[in-house]
Amino acid sequence: xxxxxxxxxxxxxxxxxxxxxxxxxxxxxxxxxxxxxxxxxxxxxxxxxxxxxxxxxxxxxxxxxxxxxxxxxxxxxxxxxxxxxxxxxxxxxxxxxxxxxxxxxxxxxxxxxxxxxxxxxxxxxxxxxxxxxxxxxxxxxxxxxxxxxxxxxxxxxxxxxxxxxxxxxxxxxxxxxxxxxxxxxxxxxxxxxxxxxxxxxxxxxxxxxxxxxxxxxxxxxxxxxxxxxxxxxxxxxxxxxxxxxxxxxxxxxxxxxxxxxxxxxxxxxxxxxxxxxxxxxxxxxxxxxxxxxxxxxxxxxxxxxxxxxxxxxxxxxxxxxxxxxxxxxxxxxxxxxxxxxxxxxxxxxxxxxxxxxxxxxxxxx
Length: 365
Prior knowledge:
Blueprint: H1 8-11, E1 30-31, H2 43-50, H3 64-74, E2 81-84, H4 86-98, E3 104-108, H5 114-121, E4 125-129, H6 138-144, E5 149-155, H7 167-176, E6 182-186, H8 201-207, E7 211-216, E8 229-233, H9 235-244, H10 252-262, H11 265-287, E9 294-297, E10 303-308, H12 314-323, E11 326-327, E12 337-341, H13 345-359
């Protein structure tokens, strides 16, 4: 029987697997597996969503009001901004615009699962570079660049490890790349980083022709359901993405909610402070179990990667956490680890208590 056959590079893709939200029995779990904001969504954004009118009409194809609001907040010319269906769309478009069969796309081991998917879907070759202590290794990445390299991805903070490259490392990596290689700095979790520690990505994008910075409203802004993100870079980069993005890619509701969310920076700051305090408390409690085979990777994001090396395995810990009503992320490539989204203080204390009981140790603060 004859039938359409998918391209071999598409057949090589392992589809993205989202974080679980239900247990083996189908019962809903508290979802600490997708890095959503436990404080929910800005009241201003919720109000904007409730006031959407004229759903029969198409949205603004250029997201003009949203781009203007982003530009005003971050001091960026709106002409150097493009909006997308989440930052995922923009990551895919960046590879599609600048790489294809015979080209290579570099990224660190243990980084965002979308990078190899975006690479393979346009026929390019993914090149995974060994990391060091769960962080991107700048020297190793530069050593892996070849004449075929067209795009380099770095997530900062990194997902799923939570590790962070400081400004000097980001600058060193960019400075070592050929000028015709696109450097994509994925800042999905950047708002969780203390402002004084920002990595200089916007300045690089403003000053150079080969830097694209992407951000999302799905994390600290609490708008994951609306699927809206944005990118900034040199005009020719923005032009390339505009040529191939969907013509009405950001819905009217997403645009309106994102504009309102940008105007509520008090909610953003409250979310950042909450995350920092609860993450620090949970991290200290995990560190107290170090003599029981439990370790934690220092995180600058809204999740923590916990390693299990003693009698308690990651899978056993995940099952026990699920039994307590929580979903966390167990990734095949990090088989000894669980990625746990930072929830409320009460939720994280309950999980910390449970893990201490499993490990047979004490971690009371």
